[in-house]
Every structure is written in C-alpha cells, then in structure tokens.
C-alpha cells in the first residue's frame, strides 16, 4: 500500500510529454495583432490621463526641492554670519582690543597722556554736532510736544 501512495504522487515526465490530452503548440513565434483605431485612441487617452495625474505631484516635488535648496543656502549664510560674530566676540576677550576700541570709540586716554582737540577753522556754528545751551532752552519739553500733537488739529501742508 505504501508503494501505491508513492506512485500516485509521482508522475513520470515522459508520460506528460507523450500525453494525447495536451494539444501541441507548433508555432511559438510572436503573434502580430493589428491595433484598431478605437484601441489606439483609448490607449492614447489613458496615457494623457496618466500624464495629467502626474503633473501636480512632479511640480510639487520640484518646488519642494527648490525650497530645500533655498533653505540650505540660507542656513549656510546664517552659519557664516554666526562664525563671524563669534570671531568678533572672541576679539572682545582680548584686553588690548578693548583698550583700543575704548580709545577709538569713546575717546578714552591713558593716565599721563594729553588729549588734543583740533577744531577746523572753516566750521561754522550751524555745522556743530552737539546742541548748544540756547537751543536746549528753546526746545519744549517732550510732554508739551505730545500734548500739542493730540490737542491741535493737523494743519494742511502748503
């Protein structure tokens, strides 16, 4: 009986080849089928519909890539600015640089030095940088200017 079960599960290969039940395929070459106009039109419309569906995602992809490139460039610029600011910050940790900037910007002098101020004789009083004491007396207080701007109607410019 074990022999019989084994023979049922195995089919000899030679038997399949010679079987009269299977039809013989004589011509296995490529079959040429003429495409009629309706099928061609349907395939063309399907291709156009597929391209139309792909336009928006491709555009979004390209816009996203452009945005990434722009942001990457912006990040690089900010990193360069950060590096220059940190280099400037490191300069302020140097005592000699601080003294130099105090002299240049604020006009500080070291003990024992003499400062000279050179005034250009061609300068007129109207070109002065500072305000004179008479100009300060003429100026109204800030709250008076504020009250006038609110209380008085605006005059048309002529």
Automatic annotation (TrEMBL):
Protein name: Septum formation initiator
Stretch list, region Disordered: 1-23
Transmembrane intervals: 39-58
Residue runs in coiled coils: 68-95
Pfam name, any one: DivIC
The keyword Coiled coil belongs to this UniProt entry's keyword annotation: yes
Coiled coil listed as a keyword: yes
